[in-house]
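Supplementary notes for students who missed Thursday's class. We covered one full example, reproduced here. Read the sequence, then the structure, then the short commentary at the end.
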Amino acid sequence: MSSTSPAMRVSETTEPEIMKTLAVSAVIWQLMLNVMLLHYQTTAQKIEIGILYDLVKFSAPMFIFAIAFDLAKLRDTHYSHYVWHKTKEIIGPYLAWTVVYMIVFNIGNYSTIWNIFKGVVLGGAAPQLWYTIMMFQIHLLLPLLTGLVLFLLKNKKNIIPVMIITVVVYAALIAWYSIYAFHNTQHPGLIQWDRLLFMFGIYAVLGVIASTYNQQWRALVERIRWWALPVAGLLFILVNHELFSFGLDTLNLADASYLKWSMVLFNIALIIIVYGCTVSLIKSGSKTLPYFKFIAKYAFRAYLASYFALRLTVALIGDYFSDIPLGLNLIMTFGITAFLSFAIVYIVEWICKKIMALFRRSASTSSHQTTTQEEGASSEALAKNSIVNSRNTSAARDK
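Structure (token representation):
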């Protein structure tokens, strides 16, 4: 990427793009920490893994906020064309990677058509794929988001009832999930309700409000972001206490649920802090902005490839994986996994472009040959007509 002036970088890089790159990094960390928990079993190591896991639990909320922020800016979009475009952009790669994960890692778990169907619909072929199922729904709800934007634009005071209704409904959803879905051994399938977008709806509404009244949102964030730091710190202590209260001997990172109020408030505080930092980066014309732009371009596809890259990383390190000190292993594994995730999708894109170029060249050559043959046939016909006309003229003269 060519170097640009700060002003140009400000216009090119947006806050949601920076947030999406951080969210992708958080997904990789979550996958990685689940693997680490299988290899590091001392109490101190489990505590370190649990604390880090809670810290990076902002991935889905930040993705939803950033996507809703962008969607709120769309106007006069043809809905069917938009959905078809997003289906090709999101569902196409998702299905391709689902097939890869099913064949390479889980072939024994998908022996029936029903299991395959559930794996595809619920995103069960790899630990991170459920995000795609949940996030794609926000694109399907574009008319609803547009309606919300128009309602907010009628009167700034409409933000108040929208937030009150959102909080009340969301509180009811979290209460239901905590009582009837979370740790429900009789109906374990209920926990998969987190695949539904409305279970993360508060972040979508917040993203729409932030985008609709962006100047006011920026001013608010810049005013309160430093106050959000101690609040986030206290909430972070609370979510860690809740996770470890289940017991260190049987530590399960799935117990660090997105759908509890402590985690929701912690994630909102993080969104405020991170958004404030992105505004500062953009205002200062930071030299890191082009890198965020590049990463954001491949973020979704790299997220899809991240579990494959992680398994490849663990295989490359081999038997020494458990012998490496946890802190060093975390840094090394993240670096290799992140690099492989983006390298894989970049190479796949390069190959696909080359194949498409060959097809286009072949189609162009065929078209050119057809045109040449038609022109040749036309010229030949003209020549024959000319000869016939000449003969007719000569015959007329002889008479």
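Commentary. The two ends are 80 Å apart (CA to CA). DSSP finds 14 helices and no strands in the chain. If anything here is unclear, bring it to office hours.
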